Amino acid sequence: MDRAAGDTRPFAGFERLLALRYLRARRREGFISVISIFSFLGIMLGVATLIVVMAVMNGFRTELLNKILGFSGHATIVSEDREPIANFKPIADRLSLIPGVTSIIPFVEGQALATSSVTSSFVLVHGVTEADLKQLKGLQNDKLITAFKDPNAIDEVPTLDGFDKAEGIIIGRGLADRHLLGPGSTLTIISPEGPDTIMGNAPRIRDFTVVGVFEAGMVQYDDGMIYMPLPDAQEYFVSESGVSAIELMIDRPEEIDSYLPAIIDAVGPGYSILTWKGRNQTFFTALAVERNVMFFILALIILVAAFNVISGMIMLVKDKAHDIAILRTMGATRASIQRVFFMTGATIGVLGTVAGVILGVIFAINIDRIQDGVEAVFGTRVFPKEIYFLTQLPADIDPVQTGWVAVMALVLSFTATLYPSWRAARLDPVEALRYE
Predict the structure, then answer these.
(1) This prediction's pTM
(2) How many whole angstroms separate alpha carbon 262 and alpha carbon 143?
(3) Please, is 398 exposed, middle or buried when counting C-beta atoms within 10 Å of its C-beta (0-12, 13-18, 19+)?
(4) CA–CA separation, 152 vs 163, rounded Å?
(5) Count of CB atoms within 10 A of residue 243's CB?
(6) C-alpha span between 350 and 333 (Å, rounded)
(7) Taking a C-beta distance cutoff of 8 angstroms, is the pair 175, 121 a contact?
(8) What's the confidence (pLDDT) of residue 158?
(9) What SS3 class is residue 15?
(10) Nearest to residue 134, comparing CAs of 33, 249, 255?
(11) Less Cβ around it within 10 Å: N or C end of the chain?
(12) Vertex 45, ends 39 and 50: CA angle to 5°?
């Protein structure tokens, strides 16, 4: 023991041996062991919860961004007087010459009331061409059903070919379920803006055949969006040969602001440009604030666990005062004693952090299955789509963010051991052994 105590190399073998021994409590040290276990569990649960919540918040932003950009343009040009744009073709041609612009979608838009024998609901009607409809990525998935193919043919891929000539509409899954409709069914659409009469504008009422049903996974599109061939929409909403607006998509949506000068030059005066960031700024700002607040709130769990480490280590130092005094008389330095107790507390933090990262990543990866299990056990919906806009609980694990969570937990854990280990190193062996 004299030789080991005299070995003052940092983190020498005898220091690691003592640190490991102090982690294993004896019978009379059971209370200290309980505090250590709770400290370990607190750090583990805090890290895991923080990783899961951050993954879900990231998933929310990613999914909502993909859904929004998959159904609406990155920039929208409308006339300042909100009148139909009659000369949209020359404007579209000039916009297509801008480097980075991937597509131009002129469309007619109008609000209407959709009625059936089952119920009525307010909808937003988009009139687009078949070619432009195919460019909406949010529409093209394996859940699309159209009347242009045999619905029982598994080997055939749903197609939108023939949409322009179908004289029908494509509706969202939520709207179809609410009205009990499918391809071949009839839906009545009522527009408040109809032809002029001596009594004013008369509502326009027309029956449309449902030729397709899409499912975007976002409630505001699935429950209230209808796509109609552009000529039919122009006739129905009395816009003659004009369009309500022009949407354009670019290859780098996050950099839409850098495209604005070129877009302004291309469209000329008399038009307003609405970007996807401007339309959804309030929503994404609120989401970012909520994510930051949740991060700080849940980080307090790790901080509380760190305080448990401090209290447990202080009690361990007081209990081991006799052992510390003997080690000092045998030649152990103050730095050596401090390292022993630092490793004891740091081990709790490291093990808790590693276990928390593993638990959090596993939970986030399997969050859909866990959600289904909880809903099956309690018989309630954990993730109502009417509130959260999405039909599934998303999770997007950011490795960098997860790494920072682990680093933060380790820093708090290591910091929590500094004061108790310093107190152990400052212990006077004479005072500790006086009454022995």
Answers:
(1) 0.66
(2) 37
(3) middle
(4) 20
(5) 26
(6) 25
(7) yes
(8) 66
(9) helix
(10) 249
(11) C
(12) 125
One-letter identity of residue 390: L
Q: Count of H helices and E strands in the chain?
A: 18, 12
**For residue 251, what are its two tokens?**
């290859």
Look at the chain and count its residues. 436
Q: Which residues contact 323 (CB under 8 A, 6 or more apart)?
A: none
Q: Across the 436 residues of the chain, what is the mean pLDDT of every consecutive 10-residue run?
A: 49 68 59 74 89 86 75 84 84 89 89 89 90 80 70 60 82 90 89 64 84 82 89 82 87 86 89 85 78 84 83 78 76 78 84 92 86 74 58 79 90 87 78 60
For residue 54, which of 414, 408, 361, 381 has the smallest C-alpha distance? Answer: 361
Structure tokens at 357: 């990262």
| 121 phi/psi in degrees, rounded to 5 | -160, 150
Q: Among residues 228, 204, 194, which one has the least CA distance to residue 109?
A: 228
Enter the tokens of residue 21.
Answer: 């021994």
Q: Which of 37, 43, 54 is nearest to 363 (CA)?
A: 54
What are the domain boundaries of the chain? 2-65+284-433, 81-269
Q: Which long-range contacts (CB under 8 A, 24 or more apart) does 202-209 make?
A: 204/236, 204/238, 206/236, 208/168, 208/169, 209/166, 209/167, 209/168, 209/169, 209/184, 209/185
The rounded distance, in Å, linking the Cα atoms of 429 and 313 is 19
Asked whether 405 and 298 are in contact (CB, 8 A), the reply is: no
- Cα(106)–Cα(263) distance, rounded to whole angstroms? 15
The pLDDT of residue 355: 93
Between CA 340 and CA 15 the distance in angstroms is 5
Rounded distance between C-alpha atoms, residue 128 and residue 105, angstroms: 7
Amino acid making up residue 252: R
CA gap 147, 211 in Å, rounded: 5
**pLDDT, position 323:** 75
How many CA within 13 A on the CB side of residue 125? 29
Q: Side-chain half-sphere of 433: how many Cα atoms within 13 Å?
A: 10
Single-letter amino acid code for the residue at 128: V
The amino acid at residue 29 is E
